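anyone else get weird line breaks when pasting these?? whatever heres mine. first is seq + tokens for prot A
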Amino acid sequence: MNWTTILADESRTNSILRLDDLAHRYNIREIVARNALRRHEARGLVEHISNKVYINKLNQQFSVRELVNVLRPDSYISLESALVDRGIISQSPAVLTCVTSAYPKTFSSPSVTIVYRKISHELFWGFEQQKTRYNSYCIAEPEKALLDWIYLCRQEGLTTPLDEINVQFLNISKLRSYAKNFPHTVEEVVKEFLLERIQAV
């Protein structure tokens, strides 16, 4: 098998390689595919992300967001990454931040770092699906991203830096409504934050 040709062909339809999928479609054992990908990783043609997931470096259209729901199907982009995406804060995080109802984990490679933080099933909502060139991913609504941020900061005993928030990009009535589904302490933070903004006007 000419793996350089295979990678070139695969790059035309996707930027992500799944080991089990390759093994199935080319009728080979996974160990054979893994060894081939390992050799081509040394040549810089692929990048290993997790046990069975690789980036095909021959595809120039790769977006880190394509990995979000591949690595963790029950997850969505939230927290700082979603807040920057929605224009609510301006300081972009160095990693892609997500929440998941599954186990939390950080996936890191030379070009990608994705952090998944755990949230309860009861709070796993308030997101929408968006498309990339080849795949799709889920991202929080701006109000939900802010509430996730406040909630998880409080879970770790940290204060949330709310002074940077651009309120004009938030639906205040939706924020108040969503906050009622969080613990009372989160709802109180939101009420205090909105009161301060009203008084500052």
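and prot B, same format (seq, then tokens)
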Amino acid sequence: MNGEEVHNLTLLGKVVKANVSATTQEYVVDDGTGAVNVKRWVDAEDESAKGAVAVGQYVRVYGHVRVFQGVRSVIAFNLRPVTDFNEVTYHFLEVVYCNAHNGARAAAAPAAAAAAPADTAYAAPGAAAAPAAGGSCSDDVFSIFNGPQGQDPNGVNIADVVAALNGRFTDAQVREAVESLVNDGHLYSTIDDAHFRSTLL
């Protein structure tokens, strides 16, 4: 979107085609702007993953974008039916907001890059600076994700964040802070559920 590369996403749309087998669930999901193939691997021992979704039903998909032979698809790690239509309306409003926000940020990038001092050049234009260490658990955790450790494309492991805080906060406190930062759109998961990266980088 707006020239930015997308890896992880949440998608909400209507199932227009379904092909379900013992090991996979394949759907074509249309969100009103286009359709995309969604594939979900099913673990035979995971009861929560066995429920197939019917054609015509709205679903929310959490997954990774994959491109194979020029065809873009989504590999879903979670897929659930939408039971409240208000979620559909909310999703459309969120899409409009994100599109406007990213468009404004992209337009401001040249001026912001020219005006930014060298020591803050890593921050995204228009984004708030990372909180300084020594504050709340959430502030300190966010600082680590925006520091040198956060430069790794695979993100930072939560265990490494706990270690970097030298016992100032428990593992549970750090995980709660990470979850809050993810919900607020400041962090996103990368290679697995334990690695996260800042949206400012």
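btw re prot B: The chain has two domains: 8-86, 122-198. The beta strands are 8-20, 24-30, 35-41, 58-68, 71-81, 156-157, 187-189, 195-198.
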